[in-house]
Amino acid sequence: MDFAFTAEEEAFRADLRAFLDAEVPDWWRGMFVDDERTMPFTRELCRMLAGRGWLTMAWPPEHGGAGASVWMQAIVREEMWAREEPRGPQYMNLNYIGPLVMRFGTPEQQARFLPPMAQGEVIWTQGFSEPDAGSDLASLITRAEDRGDHFIVNGQKIWTSYADAPADWCLLLTRTNRDAPKHHGISVLLVDMTTPGITVRPIDTMAGPHEFNEVFLDDVRVPRECLLGEQDHGWDVIVAGLTFERVGIARYARAGRVIEVLVEYANATGRGDDPAVRDRLADMRARYEAARLLNYRAVSMQAAGVVPTIEASVARMHNTQLEQQVGHVGLELLGPLGRLRSKDPLAPLEGEIHRYWTRNIPTTVAAGTLEIQKNIVAQRGLGLPRAP
Amino acid sequence: MNLELSAEQRLLAETARAFVDRHGTDASAVDPWPTMVGAGWSGLLIPEDQGGAGGGMVDVALVCEALGRGPVSSPLIASGVLAALPVLWLGSAEQRERWLPGLAAGATVGTLALLEPGMRDEWDAPRIAGAASLSGKKVLVPWAVGADVMVVVTADGLRLLEVADETVRVDAHDTLDGEPTGLVMFDGATAEPLGGTADAKDVLDRVLDHAAIAELAFAVGAAERALDLSVQHAKDRTQFGRPIGSFQAVAHRCADMRADVDACRYLAYQAAWALDRDPATAVLAVTAAKSYANDAIRRVFLNAHQVHGAIGFSTEHDLHTFTRRAKAFELTHGSTARHRDRLATAMGLGTRR
Ligand SMILES: Cc1cc2nc3c(=O)[nH]c(=O)nc-3n(C[C@H](O)[C@H](O)[C@H](O)COP(=O)(O)OP(=O)(O)OC[C@H]3O[C@@H](n4cnc5c(N)ncnc54)[C@H](O)[C@@H]3O)c2cc1C
What we know:
A: alpha+beta; 4-stranded antiparallel sheet; B: alpha+beta; 4-stranded mixed sheet; 3-stranded antiparallel sheet; 13% strand; binds flavin-adenine dinucleotide
C-alpha cells in the first residue's frame, strides 16, 4: 500500500496545472452558462491538449495515445474536474466513446472516428435516455429499421447533454428488434448529427442553458457502416460503456477544491474559529477523503488489471453525495448572501458556490441514480435477491 | 499511489483472518494471547533490536481488522500500542531495555492510564501530580486488570509504574463491551519519570492517534462482520413470501453498510500509512478517519440491527458483541467533534495554529 503519488506523477501534475493556469481564462465557469466564448474555448483547449499529447494520453499508441498509466489518467481527471472540466463535452470521447469504438468498432470505424477524437476536433453526445426510458434504459423504443445497407431511425431522446453545442456525432441507442426480450434487440448507431430528420430542442435547467436537450429523430437515414458492435447486441456495448463512465469523473476533486475555497472564505471573513463552521467544513473534508480513497481503490484495481464493478458504484455513491453536501454546506456558510447568483455583483466568491450547489442537484440522478447504484451493490456485490 | 496490499501484507492479513476464524467464535474458550504473541503481533511496533517485529501501523491495522471480525479480546492495543509507544519514544536506554523486550514477548502486559473522573475526554488535562509517589484515580484503563506495567499520564508528564504491591489497586469496570477495563487507584505508588514534561503532550497525542487507528481497524472488522451477518440474514429470513433482502428498503441499507465499511477501511489504511511515514503530519489523515468512522460505524450498526429485527437484540445471536465493541470504539480516543476540531486546524481553518 502506498498513499502517495510518485515523483514523476507529481511532476506531471505540476506541468498540467501550470498549463491550465496559463490557458484557462478567468471567465471560465464550466459548460452550462450563457456565454458564447464557452464552446470555442473548450475546442481550442482540447486542440492544445492534443498537441501536447495530453488529450488522449491514456489511449494505446496505435490509436494516437501514449498508453499512460491509470494514475496519470486519474491526475488528468482530477485537475480537469477541479476546474469545471475545461475539456467540455470531449471528456466523454476519451473516457468511453473512444474506448467503445476501440473495443467494438471495425477497423474502418476506428480509422474514421478515433483520429478526430485524438486531435480534439469532434463533439459527441450520448443519446440514451427517452421520455419513458430512464433508469429502465432497456425499455427504450426509438426504432431503427433494417433496410439492408442502412437503417431508418424514428423516435425521441431526452436529457441529451451537449446536443446543442452543437454536437457533431451521437452515440445513439435504438431498438432494432421489437420481438426480442427487452435487453436484446438493442443496437448502437453512430449518427452524424447533420443528417436530415434530426431536430434538437434545448431544455433549460436550474443551472442554465445547454445542459439538456430533446432530440427528435424523424426518418433519419443511418448507413450500416455506422452500426457499432453487433446488431441487436447493443446492450453489451452499453454495459461496457457504463462501466468505463463510472470511474470516468473525479467528482471528489471538485468538491475538494470547493472545500479549499470555503476554508479561505471562512478565514477571510473571520469565521475560521467559529466552532460550528469548523465542524461542518471538517466533516466535508473527511467525506472528501473517503470519496477520494474509494475512487483510488477502483483505480488501483485497474492498475492491477482488474475491472472495478461494484467498487465503482460504491465510489460513485460517495462522490455524488459528497458533491451535494459540499454545495449545501457552502451555501449555509454564505448565509443569506448565498441566494445571490453569479451575475449579481455582490455574490460572494463570484457565485461559485451557488453554481456548484445548483450543478449538483441532479448528481445523484445522472448516469445511473443513487438508488440504481445501491441496487447494483446489493445485488451484484452482496448477492441479495432482486426485487420482484 | 496503490491501495492494493503487498504480498507480505496480504499474507499477514490472511494469517490473522485464519487465526480469528479458529479463535473468534467462542470468546471464553482458549486464551488467544499466546498464539498472537507467537505470531509476533504483540511486538509489531517494537524494533527488532528490542525483541519486536519491527513492523508498522499498517501491519497493526491489518491484524486488528481481522481481530475485529472475531471479536478476539486481547491486550494487543493496550500493551503493543498504548504502553509500548511511549516507552519506545520517551524511554531512557535503560527503560527501553527493561520493558520493551517483555512487551514484545507478551510476557509483560502494559497499558496507559490516562482518563480521570471529571475529564471530558483524552485531551483534557489530567490532575494527578507527577511525583515519585503517585496518588489518585484513573478510570477506564484498558486491560488494567492483569497489567504488569502502566504508563501514567500526570499533570507533569508521563510516569512509568510497575504494578507490584497494594499501592496500586485495580477494580474491574462494568463496561458495555466487557473488555477487562479497570478503575486504578494509586496510593503512594512508586513511579519513575518517562521523558520530560515538555514533550509529553505531543507524544501523548501521537500515541492516541496510533491507538485510535488501531481501534478503528478493529471496528472495521466488526462492522464488516455485522454486514456479513446482515446480508446472510437478509437472504435467509423470509417474510411476505420472499426473502427480506428482496425488499429495497432492506437491500439499500445493506448497500449503505457496504459503502460505509469500505470508506472506513481505506480511511484507516491511509491513516496507518501516514502514521508510519511521519506521525507529525498524519493528523489530517487520522482525524479525518476517526471523525468519519465514528458516524459511519454508528450508521452501520443501526442498519445491521434494523435488518436483523428482534433477533439482533437477543444475546443468543452474535450481532450484539460486535455492536458493543463498535460503540466502545466510538466513545474512545476522541469524539467526532473533537477530531473535527483538530481536522479543522489541520485544514488551515482559523487562527489557532
Ligand atoms: C445532468 C444530467 C445529464 C444527463 N445527460 C444525459 C445525456 O447526455 N444523455 C442521456 O441519454 N441521458 C442523460 N441524462 C439522463 C439520465 O441518464 C437519467 O436522468 C437517469 O438515467 C435517470 O432516469 P430518469 O431521470 O428518467 O429518472 P427515473 O428513472 O424515472 O427515476 C426517478 C426516481 O425513481 C427511482 N427509481 C427508478 N427505478 C428504480 C429502481 N429500480 N429501484 C429504485 N429506485 C428506482 C430513481 O432512483 C429516481 O429516484 C442526464 C441526466 C442528468 C440529470
